[in-house]
Amino acid sequence: MKLGARVFKTGVAIVFALFLAQLLNIPSPVFAGIAAIFAIQPSIYRSYLTILEQIQGNLIGAIVAVIFGMVFGHHIVAVGIAAIVVMGLMIKFKLEKSLTLALVTVVAVMEVQGDDFLMFGLMRFAAVMVGVFAAFVVNLVFLPPRYEVKLFTNINSLQDDIIRWTRLAIRQASEHTSTKMALRKLSNRMNDIEKLYDFYKEERHYLHDKKNAKVRKLVVYRQMILTSRKSLELLHRLHKHENEISHLPEQFRLMIQERLDFLLTYHEQLLLKYTGKLRPEISQWALQDEYLQRNEVMEIFIKQISLAQEQEDEEEFSSYHLLYILSRILDYEENLEHMDTLIVSYRNYHGKEKNSDLEADFY
User: Fold this and answer.
1) Number of folded domains in the chain?
2) Quick one: 333 and 283 in the same domain?
3) What's the predicted TM-score (pTM) here?
4) Whether 241 contacts 319, CB under 8 Å
5) Same domain for 107 and 171?
6) Which of 92, 121, 272, 344 is the most buried (most CB within 10 A)?
């Protein structure tokens, strides 16, 4: 198990919350530590949203707890009913993410008995808010998340694996069970990248130039993810029809293999171009005469589909399977071209800007 930055930040937040609670002489500082555990978030923006939501949730929990404590006393049944009321209100106001901490506030406040119930209840509420504030400060200052490097690293690594498996699949060299397991893992990694993209999107910049660069980067990364997803869909299709593809005419299979090798190399070049390792003109592949153009590829596929329809029987490769493969290839190709356009545009406008974190690994 890997210990990430969030694990260390949680520990630091607990220590900081307990320290602040003791510094302010708040009784029962343990509630501040508990609040800090729930308040740590993976991004600064989410921490900001969380602190706003938890202030509202804790206020609801504290108010309900005080009312029930003053009206019904501190019986355990009253605590349970107060918790039910708080849950209903939290769901009503769409504050479900702060529900757990609001319930902690209810129990913490109603657990206090005696004449000083109201004062002690307010102090428990203050302890919880100190924990929330401590978590926000730690997330802001201590190891602030930088998701761009992690996002590009994961995209690059995922695409390398997709390219490797696609080259094996089109050559009929991959083992069926291993490819099936790899596809499942690749799909999970793709979902993780989508989450990283959301985290990166939430990062805020306050300088005008950085805002413009960030907007362009978001568009480029969105297209990178979409293009990788298209390549993964193509790999799924090749795996699904691996037996049928093996019965295609050899010349036709070689044409598909050559086309895919060409597109996969193009994809590798685009990732290198984004990091500044490749000159822009190197990957202008569409103008090169030695490669088949898109209309030529479509004509070859149409001829093969017509031939397959004439010879089709129960054991032969169905013609509509070829349409599936053709559509995946063309879709992947079009997304690569669009990705190329976006990267060139970004490099033209922001080519002189460097990301020091990204430079360390890729430049």
Assistant:
1) 2
2) yes
3) 0.73
4) no
5) no
6) 121
